Amino acid sequence: MSAALVTGASRGIGRGIALALAHAGFDVVVNFASNLAAAEEVAGEVEKAGAKAALVRADLADAADRARLVTEAYKAFGTIDLLVNNAGVAPAQRADILEAGEESFDRLIGINLKGPYFLTQQVALRMIEQGTPGRIVTISSMSAYTASVNRGDYCVTKAGLSMMTKLFAARLAEHGITVFEVRPGIIATDMTGPVKEKYDRLILDEGVTPIRRWGQPDDVGKAVVAVAQGLFPFSTGQVIDVDGGFHLRTL
Predict the structure, then answer these.
(1) Which residues are catalytic?
(2) What keywords would UniProt list here (predicted)?
(3) Cβ(109)–Cβ(150) under 8 Å?
(4) What is the pTM of this model?
(5) Is 249 exposed, middle or buried (0-12, 13-18, 19+ CB in 10 A)?
(6) Residue 48's pLDDT is what?
(7) In 10 A of CB 81, how many CB atoms?
(8) Beta-carbon neighbour count of residue 240 at 10 Å?
(9) pLDDT score recorded for residue 200
(10) What is the mean pLDDT of residues 8-31?
C-alpha cells in the first residue's frame, strides 16, 4: 500500500485530505501540532477506512521537528509516496498592513512558508535516494492572488507557496517527482467559522463564486486524491483551483 504524509491533518482541510486518501487506499501519517484528541480521531477514521495511520506531533516551524517528522514517517511505513503540505495558520488578530507588527509576520512565515519549503526539500531528497516516483501537493489558498489588506502576512505566505510549487516542480521533474498546488477557495472549516455570516452573504446572495455553495474539506481531498492516483501523468507545477469558480472573476 502507498503511504502519504499529510501535515496539519487533525482538523479542517487536512482532515478531509487524510480521510479521502485513506478511502483511496493510502496509509497516512497524520501530522499535528497540538490537538492530540483530534489527531487520534482522524487516525481512527483512517483505520476504519481500511488503511493504517501513524500519529506524529511536529511543529513545522522548528527544524528539529521537521527532521523528526520525516524520520518517523519513514520508520512507520518505509516510504513516502505522497507529501501533502497542508499545515497553516491564520493571523491571531487581523490588522491593517499599515499597523501590523513583525511578530505575526514571522510566525506565519515560519509555519506557512518556511516549514513546507524545507520539509519538501527533506522529503524530496529521500524520494530521490530511494528512487520513489513520488508526488508532492501543496495546499495554498485563493489568498495567493487575492489581496486582503487586513491579513497581508497570510497572503504573502500563500503567494510564496505558489512559487515554491513552481521551483520544486522544475527541480524534481528529472527525478520523476511531480509537484502540484491545490488552491482552495472558501472552505467550511473552523478557520472560516468566525466569518461565516460574511461569506454566506457573498456566496449565496452576491454570487462571489459561480458555484453557489461553501466548499467542503472533502472537495479539496478529492483533488489531492486525483494527483495521488497519478491522473495527471504529463503535468507538473500545475495549479488546481478548488474554489467554486472564484478565479473566473466574472462580471
Answers:
(1) 154
(2) Oxidoreductase
(3) no
(4) 0.95
(5) exposed
(6) 98
(7) 18
(8) 18
(9) 86
(10) 98
